[in-house]
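haha ok so turns out i had the wrong file open the whole time. this is the CORRECT one, sorry everyone. sequence first:
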Amino acid sequence: MAAQKRTRSTGSTIGLVHGLQQGDAVDREEMWRRLIDKVEDRVRAVLVKQGVPSHLLDEVVVAVTEKVWAGLPDYQPQARVSFWSWVTRIAKNAWLDVARKLKRDRRNQRLSSGDSTSGSGIVVADSGASPPSQAGRARELIALIERVLDGVSATKSDAWRLRKFEQLDYEEIAARLKMQVPSVRSIVCRLDQEMRAKLSEKGYGDEAVASDAG
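then structure:
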């Protein structure tokens, strides 16, 4: 009878959460398996809506489940934030972490090949230097730009990167970052001005950051 009552009490999502938080349940492992089945289904749906590529889904889902497990002792079932809202927030943040890591990896790969600025809104002026010198100048320029971006918020940095490095139009950036188009334009414009001012201190001309015509 007690086992039947325990099964009923831990059948719901919140029941499973509460049972796992108590730490004295004999079927703790089984409860976690049941909860994680529910979490994975919900997380996959959230990530698909976020546009996560299919080949990265499993990696992000694993990251989310690990974060849910780590945060479960501190989650309060009576809090205003529902369990699924909490899980959704973790999923979105986990995808942002993975996406930023991928961008950093791509950027580092371009740096190592000396092709960091190819196809972007970043220009290394041709001073007649040899190719190795040009590659070194490109790496120096990108390093300076990264220092400027490190000093602004993640949202501003992401907006500028999407415009300059990914060459997205303002509407695409606004949709991806859930912002208004005028706000994106303003961020990019202000960062362009700040970027040129900082780079000019190091001897780079205004042409180092291409003008934004879009």
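The chain has two domains: 2-96, 114-208.
again sry for the mixup
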